[in-house]
What we know:
This protein is mainly α. It has 4 helices and no strands. The protein has helices at 6-25, 29-54, 60-90, 95-100.
Amino acid sequence: MDITLIYYLVPSLIMFCCGIYGFLTRKNMIAMLISLELMLNAIDINFVVFNRFLYPGSMEGMFFTLFAIAIAAAETAIAIAIIINIFRADKNINVEDASQMKN
């Protein structure tokens, strides 16, 4: 039995949908960040899978995924620094409370 493209795309789609659901329903900034990382990991899976099935001999999808992982790590570090600063100022990391800081 050959493993086809659908065996990789369905779990990736489920991961992406769980990330969207978590991002839209959570009020905690850390939970939203985790949901965003889940969506980025689903996209990375798609990069590797499409590279493997469309261009089996090349490595562009793998390198693109490594680049995306590095960008996601930098994004996470910056987001956590912002969340820590918001927590220091307000003692809370809910999204509604952070939007009230503008006023």
